[in-house]
Amino acid sequence: MEAQYIYIGLAAVFGIFMAWGIGANDVANAMATSVGSKALTIRQAILVAAVFEFLGAVLAGGAVTTTIRKGIVDATLLSDTPELLIYGMLAALLAAGTWLFIASRNGWPVSTTHSIVGAIVGFAAVGIGIDAVQWNKVVEIVMSWVGSPLLAGVIAYLIFTSVQRLILRHDDPLAQAKRYVPVYMFLAAFTMTLVTILKGLKHVGLNISLTGSYILAMAIALVVALIGAFVIRRIQPDKKLDRKQHFYTVERVFAVLMVVTACSMAFAHGSNDVANAIGPLAAVVSVAHTGVIGAESALPIWVLVLGGAGIVIGLATYGRHVIATVGHKITQLTPSRGFAAELAAATTIVIASGTGIPISTTHTLVGAVLGVGLARGIEAIDLRVVSRVFISWVVTIPAGALLAILFFTIFKAVLP
Amino acid sequence: MANLLANMFGSSPVQPLEKHVDIAYRCTKELVAFFEAVIAGDWNKAAEFRNAIDAYEHEADDLKKEIRLHLPKSLFMPVPREDLLELLLVQDKMANRTKDVSGLVMGRKLQIPAPIAQDFLAFVRRNVDAAKKARKSVRELDELFTTGFRGAEAALVESLIEELDNIETDTDNLQAKLRGQLFEIEATLDPVSIIFLYRVIELTGEIADMAERVGRRLELLLSH
């Protein structure tokens, strides 16, 4: 079985390339909101992203990885020819990676998730047969691509409306901010940890009872909120700058909150997007090791670690520049708005991660920002973004699929 | 590279609008020094202030065009785009009227008759006060956007607009008084000058009218 090492080696290289691409481009969107609102410096954002992307990938990335790995292709059709699944997954990885590279070179907005799902559906439908695709799962995924920005938008709208009512429109917004911001921190930490514990940890081999999960999530959230409250209490109003902009100090309180939501966002992003890189890799590893398809092998933890590491490297080498560029352009997203968008997006994404649905984190964030805008929170939103999201859909999915079919044909001819 | 998130933010009109009203106010403010020079009969100095007014008016005009260019119809904003453009227009008119009145006086070397000179200066100052209050109100715009045009901040702007209205009423009263005084001394003046003096008073009074309209426009934003 010499060939199995070639397969695993190739898959690992392609997977790291994908993870690098995700770290270089997609993470920037997740972190730029915090940098743009000046809640974090670029250096801090990279540190937060590195730690929490990695944690998200390893602790909560399992479910989506499983979907990419064996949820889209009906592998039972391939039990006589397991190597076809290997070629296909390799082709899908290379296709998505290549497409992302071409697209970013040309300045087209694309989503890694859409590329990889398009690529897998492409090689399966054309390379193996139209029945090899689990269409009901694919439909579910595509519906969630519409649903996730909408859900994030609704949550963001509700969060920001509550901020306006409880804090910003009050006679003494600073006192109100100091009172309520720890509550938002609690909510953010609670949602993140609860979904992770309930849905993610079983992939790492940890099983905690339902009551235990709730108690643990509450305990962690309480610690986060208490630390936050402590930091916030020390913020003194800057009289001079407050006279110029009445909400200067209030926004500084929100900036503390945004550190928490930035961590959540990085965690959520890691939990969903790592699968794009390592889902196919995991499939290749599983088939190459056992020689059969559908063997109930657990997801090897080193695969998740590899994906997490690839993302962090991409972030450190190239992503920092993208964060700076994007952060610079979204200064309208002050901490009070940015946190609402981030928290809404992170919640939506982490729920999708827990359910095992690969979604576009960027589109979800766009939906969340639109939600804040609908709550009259943003000075000017260019609505053309909606059509751009739509275009990125209709271009990326076929492009990923076509490239995957091409690579699949080549691999079938060339590989042992 | 094209980034969805980065490109979804249009350039916000708020800071530029605040900057524009500041320029417009500075423009009107020069009018006090201008008329002081005119009354003192120092036409060289008056010409200098007239040039300063011209420069401010130009600057306001340029910024106005810039703001309009960056407000495409695809923008989604908490308040209607048209209302912001109207606000911009009346802000700009404060500067325009200042330029008109100073141009008229300068072109004809129009003397302000000594008996009404001090009252006339007080009238000019009150008009500039109105412009200043308009500036103070517009400067709350970013806070209004932050709060979604409701709550304590909206109440604050409403009270500013009320003060602005009071100043405008003041200028109306001063204007009526000034016309009366001018009528009293008409016999002593050259008829052509009299016609233009009435015109100068009218144009100056329009500065406060425009300032008041700035308030009306802000009020409309609050009512959405």
Overview of this protein structure:
The complex is a heterodimer of chains A (416) and B (224). Chain A has 416 residues and is an all-alpha fold. Chain A starts with a helix and ends with a helix. The longest helix of chain A is centred in the middle third of the chain and has 43 residues. In chain B, helix 5 packs antiparallel against helix 7. By secondary structure, chain B is mainly α. Strand 1 of chain A pairs antiparallel with strand 1 of chain B.
Give me some keywords for this one.
heterodimer; A: 416 residues; mainly alpha; 14 helices; B: 224 residues; Methane Monooxygenase Hydroxylase, Chain G, domain 1; 1% strand
Which range best describes the helical content of chain A: under 10%, 10-25%, 25-40%, 40-55%, 55-70% or over 70%?
A: over 70%
Most extensive interface: A-B, 49 and 33 residues
Helix count from the secondary structure assignment of chain B: 8
What's the main sheet of chain A like? none
Structural class of chain A: mainly alpha
Number of strands of chain B: 1
General shape of chain A: elongated
Query: What oligomeric arrangement do these chains adopt?
Result: heterodimer
Number of domains of chain B: 1
Mean pLDDT figure of chain B: 94
Cα distance spanning the termini of chain B: 37 Å
Number of helices of chain A: 14
Unreliable runs of chain A? none
Please tell me how large the radius of gyration of chain A is: 22 Å
Mean pLDDT of chain A, to the nearest integer, reads 88
Relevant CATH superfamily of chain B: Phosphate transport system protein phou homolog 2, domain 2
How many distinct domains of chain A? 1
Indicate the overall shape of chain B.
Answer: elongated
